[in-house]
Amino acid sequence: MKRLIVITLLTVVAATTFAQTLKRERLDSLLNLLQEKDKFMGSIAVAQNGNILYTRAIGYSDVATAHKADPKTKYHIGSITKMFTATLIMKAVEAKKLSLDQTLDKYYPQVENAKKITIRQMLTHRSGIHNVTNDSVYLSYYTQPKSEKELMGIIASGKSDFEPDTKAGYSNSNYIILTYILEKIYQKPYADILKEQILTPGALASTHYGGKINAQQNEAYSYLYKTTWAQDAETDPSIPLGAGAMVSTPSDLTSFITQLFAGKFVSPSTLDTMKTLRDNFGIGMGRFPYANSFAYGHTGGIDGFQSVLVYFPEEKLSVAITANGLVYPYNNLLKCALSGFFNQPFEMPVFNAVAITSESLDQFVGSYATTQIPIKIKITKADNKLYGQATGQQAFPLEASSPTTFQYEPAGVVLEFNIEKKELLLKQGGQTFQFTKE
């Protein structure tokens, strides 16, 4: 559910051999550094054959009360929720309560192309249904509860982005609709279905469908880093539903994905169907190559939370990371964990921000546009610090790495300014976009 400029996929360092011993000291060294430099708040768990090999949390679950996080702290996991929802849909298919070829018009004929859109296409993001979280108006209502009628009205009004099954396009709307379909099939709330069919059988006691964050139950608030950690707003769970409303711990997540691949929740043939990729999307999961091996999993993001869950079937290795505040990308923390298993080197980060005077920052302030992608970037200054904001998205703090280069590490965003040409280069995910100052 996370709103970022460009969606990036997990990339990892090449590996050649599998090591049976986890380099705990390497992970400890990185987490110690991140804690010392205040660059990350969150938790990690590494498991093999269902056994936890390493788990640790750093930072605070509640900054205001200085309550430190621990490995049992629960975090909102965003779109990792889709793995659970996809599993529930496939269980319904196995129980013959639903068919992957069933078209959407049986449930929601008001959605454009409903007679053509199938359950399978929604599961694999091939429906063409517009993603509601991409709209700028989304930021005006995401913290307020929405009924099924209201949210389906918003989705239906968004029309289609493309003809069903002609290509893939990630859309949270698919899994919001699938949540409602599950509730219609079982005639009970999604939270109850989830608990009865996955959480209780899987002994996932620290996982549940989200609600208002409850710090007394060791649930973490999420934060954005400005000059200090600032608590982010909470998305109302009635909006993301089975697309991104769940809460969990890294240890529970590693247990879930291990059990999923061990046949606990669905049959091996059903799991094979879920793993089958088309345009990089499977059913509730993607596949991430790692030299001679590969992992299946999903990333997640909602409000200030970011997370990732991966599983290597060959090695029976699972890693989960949940963060409630980060400047240092969780993907790099994941690389550090994996490097210890696959005998690869890992370079520790060096945090040396460049100091720039407030007056010098003024020359970068303004609005920048491009013909390459349908967004503008607005650069503002507050408290002697630059902020960037893309169309329809929240503002993000920029840290100087040179007098004319700034970055936002959590999203891998780099902005390079050319004052003379009145230009701005946006670099993210291996792509470069040229903006001109308006």
From TrEMBL:
Upper lineage: Bacteria, Pseudomonadati, Bacteroidota, Chitinophagia, Chitinophagales
Annotated ranges, domain Beta-lactamase-related: 43-327
Membrane-spanning parts: none
Record's protein name: CubicO group peptidase (Beta-lactamase class C family)
InterPro entries (alphabetical): AmpC-like, Beta-lactam-related, Beta-lactam/transpept-like
